[in-house]
Write a structure and sequence with these properties.
Elements: H1 2-16, H2 23-46, H3 53-56, H4 64-72, E1 74-77, H5 96-105, E2 109-112, H6 130-144, E3 149-153, H7 158-162, H8 164-181, E4 189-192, H9 203-218, E5 226-228, H10 231-234, E6 251-257, H11 261-264, H12 286-306, E7 310-315, H13 323-339, E8 343-346, E9 356-357, E10 362-363, H14 365-371
Parallel strand pairs: 1-2, 1-8, 2-3, 3-4, 4-5, 5-6, 6-7, 7-8
Antiparallel strand pairs: 9-10
Helix pairs in contact: 1-2, 8-9, 12-13, 13-14
The protein binds beta-D-glucopyranose.
Length: about 375
């Protein structure tokens, strides 16, 4: 992102030292350095992502979570694979080449949704199937070895949404195993506690469960960056209902954005009544753009007030909408987030919302260009 690049540029200039030169060019370089420094100071006042102390020689006013959020940058979800009841059930089996394609195309990170709950015993100690761990290790390593930050989560633990207290012990024990298993992995592996809490896992129940889970994870991973989202499906307008421990600064806060829902979910088989929404377009009218701007500004205000970095961990428009509208919406949402220092992951790589057509082995270029515009 901009600030990181600026930081890197300053760092490079410092490390290289000033070349042997005449007084005029020394003054010129001095002026540039002052300008860059002033610019960076203005940006940090605005609350934009931090610059590293190595780059500025100032006391950092942000924590590592902000740096890591810059590195998450622009990513994609490897959806419909490992969060199906079994990998492959929903049409996607991850391939090594997917990681390479994603890295080569210029994405910074992947979010890997995972359904641990169908790969573990139902009785204490709720042992996770070792072969499933091996498969997740494979996915994580494929990401990390390609310099992609990897976010792993708990996804579609359906039973906990209808019976939070009945599944609390199992959920915590599963997290204990996952956290212990990955405790020696590099910091570029990030944990996300639970995708889209909803139903009976309501605001009060979620705030209680997330704190217990965080404490459990911190026993083995005292400093790993952990992603946590608000209740009610991680909706952006629920951020103010999220309770986080003030003293844990190694947290990134996530939200999902699929508004207008009738546009992004038109014709989606799992969204009741969605056939009636078919044909809705997103034309980038002032009022349509204003809705996105209002949501992103609201998120940014919340983030600045609480001094937390933000990650838009899911956003996307289903393939039943027309491609021009999808591309316009995707570009505007992604850009609006990036401009506010919000990292993101598009939902998703190669299924119904996908940016890649795996059978034909081609990118859906209008969507990829919407996400990663040529600068
Ligand atoms: C769900 C997916 C769904 C997507 C968009 C995700 O959180 O896990 O199954 O396709 O949201 O609705």
């Amino acid at each position: 992102m901009d600030d990181r690049n600026l930081g890197t540029r300053l760092f490079v200039i410092r490390r290289l030292g000033l070349p042997p030169t005449n007084t005029l060019s020394t003054k010129f370089i001095g002026i540039i350095l002052i300008l860059l420094f002033t610019l960076s100071a203005c940006r940090s006042i605005e609350g934009a992502p931090k610059m590293t102390d190595a780059a500025t020689d100032t006391v950092p006013d942000r924590t590592d979570a902000f740096e890591m959020n810059d590195r998450i940058g622009r990513g994609v979800n490897l959806g419909n694979a490992l969060e199906g009841p079994r990998e492959g059930d929903w049409g996607v089996t991850l391939q090594e080449e997917y990681f390479q394609l994603i890295a080569d195309r210029g994405f910074d990170s992947v979010r890997i949704p995972i359904r641990w709950s169908t790969h573990a015993a139902n009785e204490t100690p709720y042992t996770i199937d070792p072969s499933f761990f091996e498969r997740i290790d494979w996915a994580v390593q494929n990401a990390l070895t390609r310099d992609l930050v990897a976010v792993i989560n708990f996804h579609h633990y359906e039973e906990i949404f209808s019976d939070p207290s009945g599944h609390e012990e199992r959920f915590l024990e599963l997290w204990q195993q996952v956290a212990a298993h990955y405790q020696d992995y590099p910091q570029e592996l990030i944990f996300e506690i639970l995708n889209e809490p909803h139903d009976k896992l309501n605001t009060i129940a979620w705030n209680s469960l997330l704190m217990k889970t965080l404490n459990k994870i911190r026993e083995t991973n005292p400093e790993r960056i952990i992603i946590i989202g608000p209740p009610k499906w991680n909706a952006v307008n629920q951020l103010s209902y999220l309770d986080l421990p003030e003293d844990d600064r190694n947290i990134i806060v996530t939200f999902h954005y699929y508004e207008p829902h009738h546009f992004t979910h038109q014709g989606a088989e799992w969204a009741e009544g969605s056939d009636a929404w078919l044909g809705l377009t997103w034309d980038g009218t002032q009022s349509q753009e204003n809705d996105v701007i209002t949501a992103m500004d609201g998120a940014k205000v919340w983030a600045e007030r609480h001094d937390r970095p933000l990650y838009m961990g899911e956003f996307g428009a289903y393939s039943k909408a027309d491609i021009d509208s999808r591309a316009r919406w995707t570009a505007f949402v992604a850009q609006s987030a990036s401009e506010r220092g919000i990292s993101w992951a598009y939902w998703e790589f190669c299924a119904g919302f996908g940016i890649y057509e795996p059978d034909l082995k081609i990118w859906m270029n209008p969507l990829v260009e919407a996400l990663l515009p040529v600068e």
